[in-house]
Amino acid sequence: MASLKKRNVALAVGGLAAACVVGYTVLNSKGNEGASPKQPDEPSEEEAEFQPSPERLARRELVDRENMRAVYAAKPLSYKVIKRVSDVVLSSIALVGLSPVFAATAVAIIAEDGRPVIYAGERPGKDMKPFPMYKFRSMYKDADARLKDLLKDNEQTGAAFKIKNDPRITKVGAFIRKTSIDELPQLVNIIKGDMSIVGPRAIVPVKEFTEHEKQRQIVQPGLTCYWQVSGRSNVSWEDWVELDLDYIQDMSLLTDVKLILKTFDVVLRGVGSY
Asked: What pLDDT is recorded for position 13?
């Protein structure tokens, strides 16, 4: 029985992997053409620490970073309307197009650790209003109860929690987190209006936000933002907050399109994800 269960998990994970491998191979082969070989003492993308560029630091001086609500309020209404319509339309199309991935993921999760398939964890949303954020369950069922025992091992700073080898993560969970498949149910959150495609990541705060940090909640949380394309888990909490405030400052249709395109590449390469 145990061997049959293991075989089912392997087959399900294999089905998930197949969808990602083709896209990764095509993009990676194109992206590596003419690339210089990595030097032995050169840090990998996984190891590199995030450093804001001088241009980004200069831009931060242009606005009052303690009054980002006024910065957001100045954004054109037309942009906010188009952003919301685009969120609903694109998320609806993605839900239909990715339905085979949803089905394969559900089978894999059930084969390894049973139900439930979806995890709905409460997150602070826009203006700190809590909402249930949907994810494919990537951890064992007692993950929430075990969190407080792992806080001492937290590798992230501030209010966020991240550890590289989290013992609560299942085998299927490790794969769907690496490929960000676990985030796909948030398309439903986007259609409901809890989230946007682009916006600061919704987290479970392990410490109370400071007033400065709360400003990242002025807008809807998103599937992707500057943090996701700047190294993800390799970015400290302090830099993470500033990147989210950068997004609020830079919000525009062009910024959103650029971030979505960058996200595809980062996700396929699995940079900074665990």
From this structure: 44
**Cα–Cα distance for residue pair 258/237, rounded to 1 Å:** 23
Give the span between the Cα atoms of 214 and 210, in whole angstroms: 6
Cα torsion through 165, 231, 141, 21, rounded to 10: -90
Query: Smallest Cα–Cα separation from 220: which of 152, 128, 148?
Result: 128
Check if the beta carbon of residue 134 is closer than 8 Å to that of residue 202: no
DSSP character for 107? H
Question: What is the tally of helices (H) and strands (E) in the chain?
Answer: 11, 4
At 136 the three-state DSSP class reads strand
Angle CA(120)–CA(222)–CA(18) in degrees, nearest 5? 75
Mean pLDDT on 126-142: 95
Q: Is the separation of the CB atoms in 137 and 117 below 8 Å?
A: yes
**Cα 50 from Cα 63, distance rounded (Å):** 22
